[in-house]
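User: Can you help me understand a structure? I only have the sequence.
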Amino acid sequence: MSVALYPTIGLAPTQTNWMVRRFTLAEYHTLIDVGVLKPGDPYELLNGVIKFKMPQNTPHASTSSKLEKRLWKMLPEELLLRTQKPITISSQDSEPEPDLAIVLGPDTRYDDNQPTPRDVLLIVEVSDSSFEEDRGEKLQSYAAARIPCYWIVNLRAHIIEVYTLPRGGRNPTYRSRVDFTAGTAVPVVIAGKTLGTIPTSEILP
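Assistant: Let's start by predicting it. Here is the structure, written out as tokens:
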């Protein structure tokens, strides 16, 4: 679950009519630069709202680690796997930090900036306490940014949801969703090329 970060950082509002203060991407970066938000702090910017990221429980951490290991093994040299690192979506004042993202290389491509949607080929969110946001606001955000493929590793239902064919507009979404349950294998398709498959039994707890 994510909660909005209010202007009095770390304090919840005492009145129900409190308005959340929205931040531009530049303002968010300033908060990091001046040390109000420190590198590694559990926050991310989503549609102008600085949100707190819940700590990873054991199933979440284990699943992320297993998936990271398997994806690394099948990636060609020209692609990179980033874990819990920012993706800049300037058009939305967003800088989410997905659990995993496959992006274009080389490493030096990101010496002076974070990946943008044109660099991103696959985003993975491992989802338990954050499920509503991963299936809701984040899915819409990634679809609007035309991220071509989005996985939700749904620890609640023990399935891997694979979303493709993003659609923008007023109600952004993905036009295709395929669920991979126990006993199946998820194809890792990057830019139309299948790099391999990952059995769900090797990922899901």
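Now, to help you interpret it: Residues 1-18 have pLDDT under 50 and may be disordered. The first strand starts at residue 3 and ends at 4. Let me know which part you'd like to focus on.
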